[in-house]
């Protein structure tokens, strides 16, 4: 009898807990790895298995189902164990004898009676690996698309949407990067640069084009130093950092969809670096997120801002107290709408995303909400002010489609899109490299759209729309 590796046991624990709670698998891994006393190598392997099996869940089920009499009747823990082993076979190309022996022990650890089933099923999965990934079981006229989706571990309908949005070359970049580890970047509090210098060096930090932005190989030293907890820095994808910098301007700012405050932190940091007179109001639907944002800002020492919780499609209700103070409807020099979205630009970080999404959400529900938020926000933009719209999606319907619909609406009359990168060109020479990084991903109308690539950063969209 083979001995079950601790990394596989931890991966199964993480997946089972994520399934039970509906939360992201990534949230559970550090605690599970620590509890199991995994060394760094085993912890990394457990992470690879847990995130990989999550990101490819639907494809794994498709590969397993033909070899199981009643696949829907499987116990959840047995299904999770089989997914982990099938992921190793299909996507890591682990030797079949290892897949079968470790898979049997993994299933045995949660259901002794299912060990025989695991043996038979996993042998068949290994035998059929290449034919499954090539979609030989699919009609020839759909085979190429299904094969592309299976190799990337994504739903077929979503691959079609990505191709329609980015074109063949851009979509292939996304598919090639989907199962690769995403790069790590952080943004450093300008008041704490010296305090984190040693930990950054230990974590292999290199400077990026934006002031305060660093790429790191890992975050172990920063975590041990308590840098994140103290507000010395935040973790954020580089392109998200660029967008936060674009939205940082002199004057009043309404940040809509502030969440727990990662972009709030970065905007405050840029305002401090540039010595801007910056009056910031952060709005989110959830009171708990506003409280978390407030705590982060307090710890950072970057300044004081106001917070409000409420539905961004009804800003009159959200801003009633402020309007009463001003004795008129408050308007802002900058209104930044960081909209809820499909998250398709960040799927390799959050493998749950593609298998939780539906075509209706991406094609209709989310664009409808995003447009409603933009139309509500437009009324709060001061004369000659800027409306910034951002998502972490790569789908046209949520990005250019929403901006086009807004500009064609009554609320969009009097607004005009301008170059996103010009916002940082106007910020001075320290931001010149960042402006260039934005310009590389701009279209002819100045709209910014990035997409994941191997060893590259995430997919983000940004439009900068100015009231005439």
Task: Considering the chains and any ligands shown, give keywords for the structure.
single chain; 468 residues; alpha/beta; 8-stranded mixed sheet; 4-stranded antiparallel sheet; 12 strands; 52% helix; globular
Mean pLDDT: 95
Number of strands: 12
Structural category is alpha/beta
* Low-confidence parts: none
Discrete helix count: 23
Helix percent reads 40-55%
Radius of gyration: 24 Å
Q: How is the biggest beta sheet arranged? A: 8 strands, mixed
Shape: globular
Structure description:
It is a single chain. The model has no long low-confidence stretch (mean pLDDT 95). The chain has 468 residues and is α/β, with parallel strands linked by helices. Helix content is 52%, strand content 13%. The chain has helices spanning 6-21, 25-35, 40-55, 57-64, 76-92, 96-108, 115-127, 129-133, 140-152, 156-177, 193-202, 220-224, 227-230, 238-246, 262-274, 287-300, 315-318, 320-326, 353-356, 359-378, 400-407, 422-425, 432-439; strands at residues 184-188, 206-207, 213-216, 233-235, 251-256, 278-284, 306-309, 332-338, 381-391, 415-418, 448-449, 461-467. α1 crosses α2 (25-35). Strands 5, 6, 7, 8, 9, 10, 11 and 12 form an eight-stranded mixed sheet that branches.
Summarize the structure.
The chain is built from 23 helices and twelve strands.
How is the topology of this model organized?
Elements: H1 6-21, H2 25-35, H3 40-55, H4 57-64, H5 76-92, H6 96-108, H7 115-127, H8 129-133, H9 140-152, H10 156-177, E1 184-188, H11 193-202, E2 206-207, E3 213-216, H12 220-224, H13 227-230, E4 233-235, H14 238-246, E5 251-256, H15 262-274, E6 278-284, H16 287-300, E7 306-309, H17 315-318, H18 320-326, E8 332-338, H19 353-356, H20 359-378, E9 381-391, H21 400-407, E10 415-418, H22 422-425, H23 432-439, E11 448-449, E12 461-467
Parallel strand pairs: 5-6, 5-8, 6-7, 8-9
Antiparallel strand pairs: 1-3, 1-4, 2-3, 9-12, 10-12, 11-12
Helix pairs in contact: 1-2, 1-3, 1-5, 2-3, 3-5, 4-5, 5-6, 5-7, 6-7, 9-10, 14-15, 20-21
